[in-house]
């Protein structure tokens, strides 16, 4: 469980890393070569494509970063955590959730993001 927590921290650090070489180094440790990232706006296949996607998101929101809004919960090979976007002006987005899966080598093989709170009943 501790290893998964560190992997997820590296994953979020990659989203916050503007330097491509440093971001790619973080992703090499935490993200499987053929990992899949899915959110309401995009489906990305592969580590290199994820790095490119992160760069595009950063370019659209200069100075913004992600922060944890919860601890990292794990069981079996799955995980979840809450996060939110902090914009360059200090305003904060809605709390969102990521649910992921860890592969046999200990790296993330899939991450599914949902933005904002869960829908009302």
Describe this structure in words.
The structure is a single chain. With 121 residues, this protein is of the alpha+beta class. The chain has one domain (2-114): Nuclear Transport Factor 2, Chain: A (Roll). The relative contact order is 0.20. Helix 1 (2-16) packs antiparallel against helix 2 and helix 2 (20-30) crosses helix 3 (47-60). The radius of gyration is 14 Å and the shape is globular. The protein has helices spanning 2-16, 20-30, 47-60, and strands at residues 31-39, 42-45, 65-68, 73-75, 78-86, 96-102, 108-114. Helix content is 33%, strand content 36%. The protein contains three helices and seven strands, in the order ααββαβββββ. Strands 1, 2, 3, 4, 5, 6 and 7 form a seven-stranded mixed β-sheet that branches. The longest helix has 15 residues, at 2-16. The model has no long low-confidence stretch (mean pLDDT 96).
